[in-house]
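Quick question, first post here. What does this chain look like in 3D?
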Amino acid sequence: MAAPFSHLKDLDYSVVQQCMHCGLCLPTCPTYDATKLERNSPRGRISLMRAIADGRLEATEAFGDEMYFCLGCLACMTACPAGVNYAELFEHARAEVEAKGVLNNPKRNAIRGFSVGWLFMDLNRLKVLGFAMRLYQQLGLQWLVRNSGVMKLMPKRLRELEAMTPDIQPALSADLIAPVTPARGQRRYRVAMLTGCAQDLIFSDVNVDTVEVLARNGCEVITPPEQHCCGSLHAHNGEWELAQTLARRNIDQFPPDQFDAIITNAGGCGSHLKHYASLLKGDLVYEKRAHEWDKKVKDIHEWLGAIGIEAPKAPLAPSCDALPNCTIGNRQSAVSKWSPTTSPATSATARKLRASRARC
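> Answer (accepted):
Ran it through. Tokens below.
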């Protein structure tokens, strides 16, 4: 009888044994910096993962808690001399936790089932939630809730979540961006634009600006109004099969052989979108297409840096700061490809902030 599938035991062992325990990752890790406990470090977590891969340890509640204590910032990957693929280990470890059900409880299962398993599997559902949140804000209900003192009666966690409620845009990308935006002047490239899920609700104006900049720089931009979640939320939370389902949907909607590039402007999404091949490894139908997909996905800054950007004609502010977030800098490795520079043509100086602590 075949042994049951295990995300860590059946993972390519060369990935698990890459870590040589040198400790250079420790100063970069926010959780280790906070606790100084070995188990809260990348090195400690990899040791736990390897113990499971070797059959010396089974996934437990303590193991699950540790995997979810990790922030997933991947700063450790920038310091590792052995090139350990911590991102892949991290995702498989969380998938192992979910497959074994060691953290299951009714409350957690209900929240994950609603959000990860239902809401983000169909973005029309998310748009309905976004519409309700917009009404909550525009009708003054949010102001009333925050100033009436009623939140003091609510549980602490609910108070914290309400305080973090983002401002919902008055219109979504599908209402603002045409399905096909022609290039301004000569068409040099044909690209697809991923509008995202939370990105669309909170930053649809940034999506509009992204399409305009692409068009001004010779790109015909294809932006289907009905799109899918990239699956980043699912992969990072151990829902491997759901992430695979969404990856297949995106590859079908944006066949990589039909575009010069597939553009994303959300750092967290981009870090996942560039690794569909590992997610769909062994899929006889999609693996080859996933490799082509990975090559075509580009962060907007990375793409503009590659094709050359037309200098804006309007005067700009004398200086600005560019802060690459952790996923752009650590997993996408795209920072060096869009390093801001001083340009006489733009009369602006952009200063890139390099500190990894600033990104976290």
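The CA atoms of residues 179 and 223 lie 5 Å apart.
Residues 198-216 form the longest helix (19 residues).
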